[in-house]
Amino acid sequence: MTTPTDAQRMEKIVSLCKRRGFIFQSSEIYGGLNGLWDYGPLGVELKRNLKNYWWRVMVHERDDVVGMDGSILMNRAVWKASGHEDTFSDPMVDCRVCKARLRADQMIEKKGVRQCPNCGSKDLTESRPFNLMFKTYVGATEDESSITYLRPETAQSIFVQFKNVLEVSRKKLPFGIAQIGKAFRNEINPRNFTFRSREFEQMELEYFCRAEEGMRLLEYWKEQRLKFYENIGIPRDTLHVKTVSDEERAFYSTGTYDIEYDFPFGRQELEGVAYRTDYDLSQHQKASGKSLEYFDEETKQRFIPHVVEPSAGVDRTVLALICEAYSEDEAPDEKGKMETRLVLRFHPRIAPIKCAVFPLLKNKEQLVAKAKEIIDLLRPHMNVFYDESGAIGRRYRRQDEIGTPFGATVDFETLGEKDASLRDTVTLRDRDSMKQERVAIQDLAAILRARIA
Ligand code: GAP
């Protein structure tokens, strides 16, 4: 099924990302480099919040998962054994007229004849495999013996460290090893902003189990992962589970789901949940000659565990979070006239800034001092932002636009000038409802912590 696309909405999102410092083109001052992106001050906070929440849910809140952090470069033998060196490729076609190099599945077909989607030419090369791994050399000599690759997935370092992690963690099956880290793919056509990049981050769990548990755990992890997305503010009805067909699935997998999201440019994959059987550990055991077996103390059996892998993209999830959060509504301006308000409705848990603090007037020393006191009070607990410039309404709008869920304003009531019972209270404004409540400064950190947990 195809979903309607919304190019205009996507354009607005890309422009907001640059204007407010979420995402910039990499090497922009030199004309950029296709498929590579830098995260600015707000983007990096959003990304960190996402990764921290994933780590919390997948590692800290569970007894059966431990983490690791592997190197990006590994012995070339890893990529030979895993099959990446021979088969990690996309079929590619060159257009002899406009010189575009495109994925074979991007060709348009008219009356059974393939045409270049760029210039319409029919003068195309046969399709041939193009390996997606970035090749590099380790050490001073650049020859066959020093070749390796930037890792195209984080999973392989988990497989090759399986035995070490098993020994030190003393876990029993089923148990998992989690990792968040960079991966690199020389994508033929990077596109849709950060969606298909050449450098990106993955959040992967390899959950090892007995063969007979594989299919049940595939279902279990699919459900867990759907819940995760709901818990960061991506509603269930924008997510779709695609059962990957026998033809599309890796030959060693006996079941794979893609979790897809309705991006403005169409329904696309966010995460794959795959039952990879015992393929990877078996391959590495065979190629390295080292045992990667598990010994079951109760049954005295020795066997290679199977694995279920939920593999999510950090950058794709960040993009989905921004797309989902982006909204325009109406709000009154300083004079009460309705104007368009741009809001990023991030779940408070992942919002880059949790609370902005405003003194009502910047030229009133006591208001400024109190606001700065509040900033110091909140800073150890969350990322906060102090803003004293411009009318208060404009300050609210600036925070709405970057998704700050709460705003605390220090006014004359805070100083107890009109009503002593309101001394040391502030107004706390909610980004979405725009409603304000009066709260005591001493309760502020606890109130906010509960709402951003
Ligand atoms: N270890 C399994 C694996 O790597 P994958 O489906 O190729 O499986 C997993 O990748 C996830 O990594 C994808 O669902 C996606 O979120 C992310 N990903 C893959 N290629 C990407 C790219 N070029 N740009 C951004 N994210 C990508």
Could you explain the architecture of this structure?
A seven-stranded mixed β-sheet has the order 3-11-12-18-15-14-13, sandwiched between helices. Strands 22-21-23-24-25 form a five-stranded mixed β-sheet, with helices on both faces. A three-stranded antiparallel β-sheet has the order 5-4-8. The chain has twelve helices and 25 strands. It has 453 residues and is an alpha+beta fold. Helix 2 (41-60) packs across helix 9. The chain has helices spanning 7-19, 41-60, 76-82, 84-87, 155-160, 162-169, 214-231, 279-288, 314-325, 365-378, 392-402, 441-452, and strands spanning 23-25, 37-39, 65-67, 89-94, 101-103, 108-110, 113-115, 128-131, 135-137, 147-149, 175-184, 199-209, 239-243, 255-263, 266-277, 294-296, 301-303, 306-313, 326-332, 338-344, 355-359, 384-386, 406-410, 425-430, 436-440. The chain binds glycyl-adenosine-5'-phosphate.
How would you briefly describe this protein structure?
This protein is of the alpha+beta class and 453 residues long. Helix content is 30%, strand content 29%.
